[in-house]
Amino acid sequence: NNHSSDPRGALIVLEGLDRCGKTSQSSRLLSYLEELGHAVESWRFPDRTTNVGQMISSYLANKSHLDDHTIHLLFSANRWEKRSLMESKLKSGTTLIIDRYSYSGVAFSSAKGLDMEWCKAPEIGLLAPDLVLYLDISPEKAAERGGYGEERYEQLEFQEKVAESYKTLRDASWKNIDATLPIEDVEKQLRETVLNCVETCGKGKPLSGLWL
Ligand code: NYM
């Protein structure tokens, strides 16, 4: 029932443009929570280790070409194949720090011109994050950070469109963090917010589904 809920781990998602610093922050968060004695794992999407993930990886490396709708559905399938494991981890008390999730799925695909509602549809029923940490950086500043790699999407013009799409996706679980601050300052802000969230979920907060 909705009145009382068992203690559980928190579902925490990091989002942002390419080169916003998500990956280093998620590993810092992982060690921080581990040191405090919390059960915690860090995950990332796309999860390139599965069969679907390998198709995605080859697409991102420009080694294969897929229709925009098709790759969108593969990214979504890649989350669905982890959904039940995700739920059991959370219910057993493990907090998950996830580098990219459905918000990336919708932001990147809709930046190509796909309809946003269409993009959201296959995400319906995936677990809703308790907290979305958006590492906010302008596309120009992100591009200055050692430049982009060779992967698809890593171009200034496209990242500008992604940033616009992200703006329309903000919801109640969303928190903007200024990602242009020094790495330690970003980390400090993330720590406070994350700890709060872990505590709330530890007291029992019902799991819900996307999109709210
Ligand atoms: N990406 C990631 C999507 O287009 N849709 C998704 O659902 C997800 C999870 O993949 N440029 C894009 C964003 C990135 C790229 O992610 C690979 P990463 O974090 O660089 O491995």
From TrEMBL:
Keywords: ATP-binding, Kinase, Nucleotide biosynthesis, Nucleotide-binding, Transferase
EC number annotated for this UniProt entry: 2.7.4.9
Coiled-coil zones: none
Superkingdom as given in the UniProt entry: Eukaryota
Molecular function via GO: ATP binding; dTMP kinase activity; nucleoside diphosphate kinase activity
Enzyme class: transferase
Keyword Membrane: no
Pathway(s) of this molecule: Pyrimidine metabolism; dTTP biosynthesis
Biological process terms in GO annotation: dTDP biosynthetic process; dTTP biosynthetic process; dUDP biosynthetic process
A single Gene Ontology CC term: nucleus
Record-annotated Thymidylate kinase-like domain positions: 14-189
Keyword Ribosomal protein belongs to the record: no
Similarity section: Belongs to the thymidylate kinase family.
Protein name per its UniProtKB record: Thymidylate kinase
Species this chain originates from: Fraxinus pennsylvanica
Full-protein residues shown: 101 to 312 of 313
